Amino acid sequence: MESLTLTDGEQKYYSDLFVYCDTDNTKKVASNGRVLDLFRAAQLPSEVVLQITELCGATRLGHFGRSQFYIALKLIAVAQSGLPLRVESLNSVKDLPLPRFVVAKNEQEARHTAMYPDSENQGSYQGVIPRPPGRGQVKKLSAHEVIQPCVPTVEPQPDTTSPVVSPHQSPPTSPHWRKHKRQASGGNIERQPVVVAGAVWTPFREAQAGPVVSGDGMWSANSPPPVQESWVSLKDAHPPSSSTLPAIHCSPVQENSSIRTVASATTTNETQRHSSGGYDDPWKITDEQRQYYINQFKTIQPDLNGFIPGSAAKEFFTKSKLPILELSHIWELSDFDKDGALTLDEFCAAFHLVVARKNSYDLPEKLPESLMPKLIDLDDSAEVPDQAPDVGYSGSPVEVTPNKSPSMPSLNQTWPDLNQGNEQWETFSERSSSSQTLTQFDSNIAPADPDTAIVHPVPIRMTPSKIHMQEMELKRTGSDHTHPTSPLMANPPDLSEETKLATSMKFVTVNSGDGYSSSDSYTSDQDPITSVVTRQRSHSGTSPEGLKVVAAPPPPPPRPHASHSRSSSLDMNRSFAAVPTGPQLAGVVAYPPAVPPRPLPTQTSGPHSGHRSDEGLAAHSSTSPQQIPEQPNFADFSQFQAFAASDQPSDDGEKHPESLPVEKSSEGAGPLRTVKSDNQEERAAATVNSAKGSIMAPPPKPVRRRLKSEDELQEEALPLKSNVIATVLAAQPSIPRSVGKDKKAIQASIRRNKETNTVLARLNSELQQQLKDLLEERISLEVQLEQLRPFSHL
Amino acid sequence: MAVCIAVIAKENYPLFIRSVPVQNELKFHYTVHTSLDVVEEKISAVGKAMADQRELYLGLLYPTEDYKVYGYVTNSKVKFVIVVDSSNTSLRDNEIRSMFRKLHNSFTDVMCNPFYNPGDTIQSKAFDSIVSAMMVQAS
């Protein structure tokens, strides 16, 4: 053999490798097995390896002496760089890169199986561990690392390369290689996995003599040097010497691994892989690990969406031979919802922690972020590997179905359309962020409309109607955002000035008109519009009232939806929207969208009374005088209209009073009136409906009403129908007046009529329903009477 | 802020006991032990429907010149005893109740852990942290 001149780096590297292969600790001869494994890890064709061994003289000697070993390594480098293998090339080739050895993930797998080193169960355990087919082989061994010469250069951690398949021979050198690599790279996080792997290995090895052969070869790249080193440290037999001599430590372990079979290798690969791979980001779970955990989960609980009861989990984790105290702590960490059972995510977290502990990683005090069971799990378990690494358990479907996870995911699912984070939810980009988006979503909805927030909160009710409304609200707020505010802004200063309803009405009308026109696009979104307008109105209409409205944003805000969701209100909205500026028209326009804040009855009672007086004073010629005193709102309304549009006030006012008198008759509640007055002030036609709704229903009902569909309103409106009709009819005469004025007035009046029609139609339907109800009651009573009668006759 | 918190099993042996002034531990242990008599007395006093009528919170068991002892019994006869310093601005009853509630919750969490055998001393870190939070800050 030619004399070999090595560079310093090469010298160091080769010596390390030699030490690594020096399983017998002879310091002279490298064990054949390990050397061969190492050569295999070099990913060279076997004939090349044979040639190398021949060239270096090992075949001649029958063993690898140090010189032979070095020569072989050099030749490997030569071969890897593509140069022909020549003895002469040993020294002639300059700047030869150090030979590279790829380590597969077998080690991880072996380590993992080692974690549960029931010697007798080893086989069964391996059977238990569903070695993902080909896992030990070519499977996504992303962690497969390429061992680079451990030059002090920073190691790029080429972690994921196809694992070197050395099925029948544990690449005992692989850990060694890894160490080298690690050493070069310094302590990076990936070291941990290696440590983990090592740790796993050690116990495993101890459990049974060296089965972890292929596992070694399959070390995942994710087992960085630290793993090796700690792994080394686990081997008490070989006190960790300098990190540069990990081989010594590795060797004993690897010896045991040499006996590994392919099957066990794959197992260990898995073990190592997921045991070591989980710590890239210190507690991140790699895909392979996750898949492994899932497979394990399946063995206990076939249903991936189900739970593992505590007892079963206890048995399973007891196999890991961790002290009960630690297992208890792990359980505390991983049982996120404290229900005594483990979902898939929780199980993965627990498993991960066990693996970590096995590799002498201290358990965290709190569950790491990446291990937290994700609230939303869209992925199927099969897709787990595809999940983003930082998401941890995000992909677990278990979280989705059971309610173990917080309400966030359910919220997310409930509002898939509305949830802005929906995309994230689906893509699993960031679990935590998705939950954040969930909250954001809610918060967005609430403050979505600053106006609403100011005046009254945008109701976020989980009813379908609400959902729709909210959507509309969102749309509206999005586009119509500025509009409401501007008018509102303009109004407040004026509001303070406006004490009289009339002026305030004007303002409101103007503003509302503006705002409304701006929200034309949202005519369909009556609720939001009305709410916006309402807000505007509340500001402009009556400062005290407006303020009150703002002050009392009851959670179920008096959504005008009751009034506006109906076609009538739609018409009204439309009509109002169409109406051009014109103060009168604006006034009209303003009305429909206004949604009188429902809960205001009590609050507004005060100011309302004041208003009432004013309203009463307001000329409402068209309305019957009796209505005025009865319905301060009505008065307000009419006054409102009077100011806004001399022509058409009656219609709205009448409509409102129609409902008011009816309601009053039914309820006779003062506060109702106040509510009505609010309604009136705030909207024209819409108020009719809303007033009805609000007034008709007894205090609890109004709130409910908002939520109810209009049908409910109809029911309540039944008693009012007659009055309404009367008022409507009474309002008719006022219409011609408007007609004569102006084309716009005509149109407005037409709209009013339409609105009136719709209102009446609604009233009619409501009355019909009431009639039906009454009939039913009557029938039931009659039946009862019948039942009683025979007895009476007796 | 408690001075001593103890969890006593059904058979009247302690599952968990922690005192803040570590030096006087024995005194507190003794206090807790004697308080068990009072607890028993209060439990048996109810007589009729065991769990139904009996409230979990027992209230002040007995006061001494230095401290007060409060008791709480679960439906499984596990007793929680809290000793508070009398000089401490007397904690309101509600606060004591909330402390017991928290104890009870964390105790059930410990129980849920399959690795915990009922009857073992409680070594859960979570439980420890809850208890520490309730104890008087070590001066």
Automatic annotation (TrEMBL), chain A:
GO MF term list: calcium ion binding
Superkingdom of the organism of origin: Eukaryota
Domain EF-hand residues, every copy: 322-357
Domain EH: 10-97, 289-373
A biological process term (GO) from this entry: endosomal transport
Biased composition (Low complexity): 513-525, 634-648
Cellular component terms (Gene Ontology): cytosol; plasma membrane
Presence of keyword 4Fe-4S: no
PANTHER family referenced in this protein's UniProt entry, alphabetically: EH DOMAIN, RALBP1-ASSOCIATED EPS DOMAIN-CONTAINING PROTEIN 1
Name the record gives this protein: RalBP1-associated Eps domain-containing protein 1-like isoform X2
Originating organism: Salvelinus namaycush
UniProtKB/TrEMBL annotation, chain B:
InterPro entries: Longin-like_dom_sf, Sedlin, TRAPPC2L
Gene Ontology CC, one term: perinuclear region of cytoplasm
GO terms for biological process, alphabetical: endoplasmic reticulum to Golgi vesicle-mediated transport
Domain of life: Eukaryota
Keywords from the named record: ER-Golgi transport, Transport
Annotated Pfam families: Sedlin_N
Localization per Swiss-Prot or TrEMBL: Cytoplasm, Perinuclear region
SUPFAM superfamilies assigned: SNARE-like
Key word Iron present: no
Similarity field: Belongs to the TRAPP small subunits family. Sedlin subfamily.
Protein name: Trafficking protein particle complex subunit 2-like protein
Organism: Oncorhynchus mykiss
